[in-house]
Amino acid sequence: MTPEARIGAAVEILDRVLAGEAAERALTTWARGSRFAGSRDRAAIRDHVYDALRRRRSALALSGQAAPSGRALMIGLLRDAGTDPTTIFSGQGYAPAHLTGDEAAALAAAPSAAALPEAVALDLPDWLVAPLKARLGADFHAAMEAMRHRAPIFLRVNAARGDRDDAMAALAAEGIATRPSVLAAGALEVTDGAARIKSSQAYLTGLVELQDAASQAAVEALPLQAGLRALDYCAGGGGKVLAMAARVRGSWFAHDADSRRMADLPARAERAGVAVRRLTTAAIPGEAPFDLVLTDVPCTGSGTWRRTPQAKWTLRPERLAALNRTQDEILAEAQNFVRPGGLLAYMTCSLLDSENAERIAAFLARFADFTLELERRFSPLDGGDGFYLACLRRR
Ligand SMILES: C[S@@+](CC[C@H](N)C(=O)[O-])C[C@H]1O[C@@H](n2cnc3c(N)ncnc32)[C@H](O)[C@@H]1O
């Protein structure tokens, strides 16, 4: 496909996403109906679509148009990249059709990138600027600029299967280039060949797992002693419990309010060479107390919006408030299962204080037998996703 045809495909897919379809689904549907597209084409189109979704607000402003559409976003994105959109929207061959009179007039009247208001230039909903500034301070601008770009891909080396050098060599032999990340001892950043990861032997045999480096760093910061009994209370697919189990020997338990979310956990644990027992909510009291209860709670995911940019635009204050209530409830439930002297760990992939330090302050005000022992905050400027960890010790 020509570069113009790829942009035409992105326009088509973006229109479906703007009409309410999930980006992944729209990309897959398009690829199924477009067998002529090779893997490089699909990767380039995917990049266009995700760039446009991350930079939806600035791209629309740079197009000069009022209503978002695939064409408007791609016109704005091209302008942002310093390309004259009329050279791509040429109507020739498989290129998208010429700019209409209205599109050309809007483009001529559109502001320059330098003239965009802060929230528009940084691609943020207005209401999130103040809380993010409060949290990030002097890093606000650089961190939000980082969030406008594609996130790096990280692997976690499974210490139960091999060390970092083994993993780098095995991956390199399969055409996947990596470099060590400074964020976590077991983290590798993928620099080439990411599309091959899931079919590689290193992945299929459990030597490496896909996991963001900040998540890995948070798990590495947990004080884990060999022989401990630990419950991952919001286990989902098991990313955290598998990372903990790879670090030290212990008895590992996993729970999720929606047990279907743990469906893949047995296969992942087997691949990783660790044992994790799944528990229903009713079975937890029979196994409690635990030395460690981890609550990797549902959150806005504001630290991961590079990967899930649609979520940035759909979040509303009411949804954030509802999440805060759930976060408080989960902490209040989970503390029941921590032994005296044990640890309650709280994690989010959010940058917002209202989901992080404020929840911990609310918890400590309510449960006087816990003290804050450790707190870590990660921003995209550290290299991985935005992430938060608090460890609370029960007296
Ligand atoms: C951020 S995800 C967990 C991700 C997972 N720990 C991982 O590393 O792959 C949050 C999980 O909390 C679960 N959840 C929501 N409400 C819950 C509750 N009241 N008790 C336990 N789990 C809950 C959700 O079903 C979801 O799977």
UniProtKB/TrEMBL annotation:
Active-site residues (renumbered): C349 (nucleophile)
Span of domain SAM-dependent MTase RsmB/NOP-type: 143-395
Pfam families: Methyltr_RsmB-F, RsmF-B_ferredox
GO MF annotations in UniProt: methyltransferase activity
InterPro entries reported for this sequence: MeTrfase_RsmB-F_NOP2_cat (IPR049560), MeTrfase_RsmB-F_NOP2_dom (IPR001678), RCMT (IPR023267), RsmB-like_ferredoxin (IPR054728), SAM-dependent_MTases_sf (IPR029063)
Biological process according to GO: methylation
Top-level taxon of origin: Bacteria
Keywords from the named record: Methyltransferase, RNA-binding, S-adenosyl-L-methionine, Transferase
Residues the entry annotates as binding S-adenosyl-L-methionine: D256, D296
Protein family per UniProt: Belongs to the class I-like SAM-binding methyltransferase superfamily. RsmB/NOP family.
Protein name: RsmB/NOP family class I SAM-dependent RNA methyltransferase
Species for this entry: Albidovulum sediminicola
